Amino acid sequence: MTIMPLSEQLIKELMPFGLTRNEATVYLALLQLKQASARAIAKLSKLPRQEIYRVLPRLERLGMVEVIVSKPTKFLAIPPEEVLSELIERQQEILTRQTSKLRRKKNTLENELKKVEGKSAGLVQPEPVHFAVISGQHLVNEKIEGMLQNAKSEVLWISPKLEIRRAVIYDRDEMLRQCAQRNIKIKILTEIDEKNVKEVNKLGRFCEIRHAPGITTLITIVDDKELIIGSAVHTSNSLTGSELRHELWTNDSSHIRVMKDFFEKVWSASIPAKLEIASIKSGRAVETVTVVRGREKVKKKMLDLIANTQSKLFVAAQLDDTSVSVIAPQLDALKKRNVSIRWVTVVNKQNAEVVRDFAVKVKLHCLKRAPISFLVTDSDCLLSSTPILQIPHEIIWSGDHNIVNMFWKLAEEIWEQSLFNFPSFPFSVPPQQ
Questions:
Q1: How far apart are CA 135 and CA 132, in angstroms?
Q2: Cα–Cα distance for residue pair 421/363, rounded to 1 Å
Q3: Fewer beta carbons below 10 Å: N end or C end of the chain?
Q4: What is the predicted pLDDT for the residue at 375?
Q5: pLDDT, tens digit (0-9, with 9 covering 90-100), for 329-387
Q6: Using CA atoms, how far apart are residues 425 and 368, in angstroms rounded to an integer?
Q7: Which range (48-57, 119-128, 301-310, 374-383) has the least confidence?
Q8: So what's the pLDDT on residue 41?
Q9: Residue 236 φ/ψ, nearest 5 degrees
Q10: Given phi > 0 = left and psi -120 to 50 = alpha, else beta, which region is 38?
Q11: Is the confidence at residue 430, as pLDDT, over 50?
């Protein structure tokens, strides 16, 4: 019998699938022999028999080799199409774990890298630390206007309720609108009452606003680079009050970091502006968790939440013709506002074509088993025991910050555990942009 030498090219092409050179060589030799003893594999592969016995158990665990009980023991090569599919899934799982590990290390490494940033000779020295007391409403407005014009990524603003009304008079709303048009993220914390609802609604068209009672401090933070802080103690309720204002401006990173931590703590304990406004109009206390009943009310609630999404939307739900007809009209509007849309679903023979078409519109991952059906935006979440986009008779809604955060953590876990597609499906999901 003529023994054909092993293809060096095939060995090299197998290795990127997660195999060592010897593992690829042994599998290729056994595949060529179809069924053989360790001795025969060693002869064809030109590897020591001891190495063959070391490699074969590993290949068996990978699902590439099957042991045949006989004398001597023989081994059977699993067909290539099954082997390559299993190896691809294994590499995807490894990549998912590695990505998750890197995410956990990111913050720590980021802080360590910042410590060495700019320390080498010849690099630009950091900007000197400055403090300045700014007196007078006119000069304060000028300084804040300059900060907003220089903003690159984020504006955080804490404002007492009266100051929200005054700020609109001094055109602060127009400055913030211009920031929003440059894709700068804006967060505002204020106390909302019946007197400033109009101004809050105006700002809420392009800013994310939350209500926190008892705010008396004025704080504006821009890009973690500039901070201006003052106390809003007014001798009158006049919107054009003439009190002499004194505010402190600094670019000191330690002070900015303390104030930003303060902002985030108050933000996490606050409630969305739309809930407080609804409470003021109805005279009822704010509900942060409620059950919505009735298909029409469920549909309206869901579509309102999607339409009001500020920056990110995550959906875990079964896709079919019905659900696509509900959601598709909303997607174009969200994409025009650069809202991040991620979707997790299950693919089967019944919905394969729908999923394939839908994967062009959103970032889509697949699971082997149906996920819990939920939807979460920047500030709200919906949960259902049945497929949420088939419009169930009731859903659970929450606008509680802690509950929304909990669902975002769940969303991230599901996303990392899911895949773009499975090799057994008759289509390929397009690459994500």
A1: 10
A2: 12
A3: N
A4: 92
A5: 888 888 888 889 998 888 888 888 888 888 877 888 888 776 678 999 988 899 987 77
A6: 11
A7: 119-128
A8: 93
A9: -150, 170
A10: alpha
A11: no
User: Using only C-alpha atoms, what is the Rg of the chain?
Assistant: 30
What angle is formed at CA 323 by the lines to CA 315 and CA 392, rounded to 5 degrees? 85
Which pLDDT value is given to residue 115? 73
pLDDT of 258 higher than 70: yes
H or E segment to which residue 12 belongs: helix 8-14
Peptide bond into 72 cis (omega under 30): yes
What would the DSSP string read from start to end of 97-162? HHHHHHHHHHHHHHHHHHHHTT-STTSPPPPPP-EEEEESHHHHHHHHHHHHHH-SSEEEEEE-HH
Query: What is the CATH number assigned to the segment(s) 287-417?
Result: 3.30.870.10
In which order are the strands placed within the sheet that holds 289-293? Answer: 289-293, 394-398, 381-384, 373-376, 312-316, 340-346, 363-367
Q: What is the mean pLDDT of residues 182-197?
A: 91
Neighbours of 89 (CB within 10 A): 16
**Fold match between domain 8-83 and domain 287-417:** no
The residues, any chain, with a CB within 8 Å of residue 313's CB and separated by 6 or more, are 306, 334, 339, 340, 341, 342, 375, 376, 377
User: What pLDDT is stored for residue 433 in this prediction?
Assistant: 40
* Strand spans (E) along 225-362: 226-231, 246-250, 271-272, 289-293, 312-316, 340-346
In a 10 Å sphere around its CB, with 0-12 CB exposed, 13-18 middle and 19+ buried, how is residue 280 labelled?
middle
Residue 147 pLDDT level (bands cut at 50, 70, 90) = very high
- Nearest alpha carbon to residue 340 among 381, 309, 308: 309
Determine the pLDDT at residue 120.
62
Q: Count other Cβ atoms within 10 Å, centred on residue 248.
A: 14
Q: Whole-angstrom Cα distance, residue 213 to residue 189?
A: 10
Question: Cα separation of 15 and 23, whole Å?
Answer: 8
**Bridge partners, residue 316, by sequence:** 344, 374
DSSP assigned state of 72:
S
CA-to-CA separations, 141 to 152, 243, 355, in angstroms, rounded:
19, 14, 52
CATH architecture of the domain formed by 131-233+241-281:
2-Layer Sandwich (3.30)
Cβ atoms 200, 232 nearer than 8 A: no
Class of 8-83 in CATH:
mainly alpha
- The full set of domain ranges for the chain reads 8-83, 131-233+241-281, 287-417
